[in-house]
Amino acid sequence: MNVARTIRRLPLAILLAVAGLAACSKQPPQALGTLEYDRITLPAPAAERIVAIQVREGEQVAAGQPLLQLDPAHTRSELAAAQAQVRQQHEVLAELETGPRVEDIDRARANLASAQAQAREARAYYDRLAPLKGKGYVAAADLDRARAAAGNAAGQVAAAQAALDELLHGTRPEQIAQAQAAVAAAEAQASAQQVLLGKLNILAPRAGRVDSLPYKLGDQAPVGAPVAILLAGDAPYARIYVPEPQRAGVRVGDAIQVFVAGREQPYAGKVRMIRSEPDFTPYYALIGDDAARLSYLAEVALGADAAELPAGLPVRVEFRGPAK
């Protein structure tokens, strides 16, 4: 009886096994992408000729290593002019802080004494002519000219006195503040030229590989044009496009396997970034029914075992289920 019962149960066991195999053979959801490096673009700081290139395309460089040199002659001249302007403004400030010279004060006093003497003479002449007007001995025009000369002499005295007082009071604080501001502006201009001169020796900001040198020796690149492009990072990362149905199960920090074209064994990776805003799926990442869906850009960091992989290789990741 036990044998008959076992025989009756065989079809059910076979069906379950077949169903299990069918479930295992179903391809899991996946996403496609490419291997990428962090791209660093180094622009030309000035429109100068390239006078030296110390690296070649594809070369591995260290942080701070010289890449190429732009002609520094013009910038050095600009720096020298800016430094001369700094010295001039410093001397102007020193002159204002020192105040007027003793000789200038003595000259102002002499001018005041001369003006006072002329004023006394003009006043005395007018005083002598004034009583004669009533007797008809002096023309009215002559008296008016004498009066005007006396008034003009008095004005000259006031001007000379004011000039002397200005020298005696010294330099105004506002003038010193303006001179200090001029010194600061000149120093800032000189510092800017010094920084620009240093930038003409283009260095690698990070360790990486030289991807492109668009200009050759002797070329003059315009300001802002890329003169060197680096691929930085110890290893590439996978830039993938997560289909909308799998987005809820992918989180930053999830471990994931990355299959690289031309490599049999997958590489271990970890999701380091995933966009919150969806994007349209690029043409190379269209998969079946997902072709009409939006996807979410994500980046998967790879380990040191992927350091020798070149950028641009197609990759594929599989989603085994929601992240735990």
Automatic annotation (TrEMBL):
The keyword Hydrolase does not apply. It is found in: Cell envelope. Coiled coil: none annotated. Residues 1-22 form the signal peptide. It comes from the Bacteria. Keywords: Coiled coil, Signal. Residues 75-191 form the YbhG-like alpha-helical hairpin domain. PROSITE patterns: PROKAR_LIPOPROTEIN (PS51257). SUPFAM superfamilies: HlyD-like secretion proteins. This is HlyD family secretion protein. It comes from Rhodanobacter soli.
